Amino acid sequence: MPGVPKPMPPKHSLISAVWGEGAALEDCPALEQIFTAPGKAEDLMQALACHFSKAIAANPLGHPPFRNSFDGYGSTLQLAKSGRAQLLLQAREPGSYSAQAATFSDNLRYDAVLAGQARGRIVRIHGPEDKVRFCEEEIALGRGARLAFDCTSEMLLAEEVEKRLVTLRLVQAAAQPRPVREYCRHTGSLLHRTAGKLSSSRREMMTALLGRMGRADAAPVLAGLAMRAGEDSLRWQALRECLALDTAQGFTALATIARDASDPLGASAGALRAQLLEAHPQLRELENA
User: Fold this and answer.
1) Are residues 143 and 216 in the same domain?
2) How many CA atoms lie within 13 A of 15 on its CB side?
3) pTM of the full predicted structure?
4) Is residue 4 part of a domain?
5) Which positions ≥6 away from 221 have C-beta within 8 Å?
6) Banded model confidence at residue 252, pLDDT cuts 50, 70, 90
7) Higher-confidence residue: 6 or 197?
């Protein structure tokens, strides 16, 4: 139809399939240029903006076919997804931002700053997982900046955004991602740990919902889930909910896990068992039953 722009390539074609399967960035020349060569990321976004500006002008009730979110401070468009990889366009609104915690995930990330101006810092962690040491590097962010992060131990904090910061971001998740970890920036203590996989996060939410609903009939299923091999965060969530719904089944499962020296949850289960026995000595009867 005259005046209607040609369609854009499919979303997945914006990301190399081999990158989505876990290849290194240097094995994906087109992607590597976007995140290393001057002007390439800006050219891509200029072409994308022109295409959709014409499309919306021709179809005033239309909207770009991208997943998006906005929380009042930052916005995200998911431009493409392939396998374990995502291409995102993100913006951070002007203002001052402080963070009491730092979060790390099992991802590789590449940033190309397209516009804006900000001051921030790169936060790196070292040491044992339960309590880390921080090393921080101040950085100025502006158009043309190119950054790469191993998100298992590095993250970027934009603390003073003077002009809206717009970034093209490429993310590749690990095949079997470790849990996401949140640390207190003042003490280095581990505050929170969640599943690295979206599917496991959904199961954690369902497990928590059973607990909030008081579904005592789900206790055997939760006990079984806690005992089976799987993501530690999901097993721990199931164990906690089982304890709350049915003390006998939950404590029996807890004691079994605590006795298994090869179980990754063994030490944590042992510590919780000791705390519960100190507070409720009658629970020892369940172990002797």
Assistant:
1) no
2) 26
3) 0.74
4) no
5) none
6) very high
7) 197
